[in-house]
Amino acid sequence: MSILLFFLVLFLLILVHELGHFLAAKKFGIRVDEFGMGFPPKVVGKKIGETEYTLNALPLGGFVRIFGEDAEEETLSEEEKKRNFSFRPWWQKAIVLVAGVGFNILLAWVLFVGGFVWGMPTALSPEERADAQEVRLLVVRVLPNSPAARAGLRPGDEIVAAALPDGTVADELTPEKIVDFVAAAGAREVPVLFTVRRDGAVEVIPVTPQRGLIAEEAERAAVGVQMSLAGVKRLPLLPALWEGTRMTGTMLAAVAVGIAGFLYDALTLDANFSQVTGPVGIAGMVGDASALGFAYLVTFTAFISLNLAVINLLPFPALDGGRLVIVLLEALLRRPVNATAVQMLNRFGFVFLLVLMAVVTYNDVLKLFR
User: What is the predicted pLDDT for the residue at 338?
Assistant: First the structure.
């Protein structure tokens, strides 16, 4: 189920991104030869008007083939030049290139606004409980090979009670209180009896705390779960529009700062590439989000859409940001950049990104067996 949801989310994000390029090109009268989901080889296609719509074999991507975008040096008629990307004003080319990023940001905004109207899941501090609905203590992550993982706790489980074998019960269900309760149980070397709700059923899962799971506090016992006190925040439409806009801006800034920080660490040879998540890891995270509920899946999709927007704006060949640099350079020089050099740069960038994706996917697979 996680794999199916992952591909549905991926399909939506790519479709929206490429739709941005497509609609902007059409708006300026630029010919679009193909709108493809997935990468070739082509599985099926249908031509409607001047554009062929295709479904391709490799599902991790998509593209819009715009007439003249690759700046091939060829003899064109005056009529063909009017529909050619390369002969459009630089500002039109820039808009076409950033439209995909813009649509990904727009999608995130729509999802956030809709989430607040429908009910936006929000992490809560204990003081915020009174202002939220459906407050729950949720397991959001389980460390591999931890006591919690071996006992059968899963992301999405709702902790409804925690007790010791002698009948002592945790008096407050907050992450901080449960962490302290578990540590006390570890000091007494007794298991914690977690009562959890999963898929509508309630069961008791005993978990024996273990020392050494928290690097900073090696002597403090833990079970290997990350918990969050979460509630649903519902708003009328106008406040939802404001909150959705605020959250989109806040999350977009956070994603940009995070990616910039990682790139700086990479340039200074200080980056931890094992923390980078690829398609396999994201598929697992989609499954975890869906286990928490539909609203969580919507929020996660919005977050990934913003990540896709920022990454595509990076000034790297084959990405929208790299193509945008070429367009701006041409505007400054007032002449086209060598078409062959641009093609070679973009092909290099595409191959590099494929290799990087393969390496990250390999690391994702290794993490599954750790």
Answer: 79
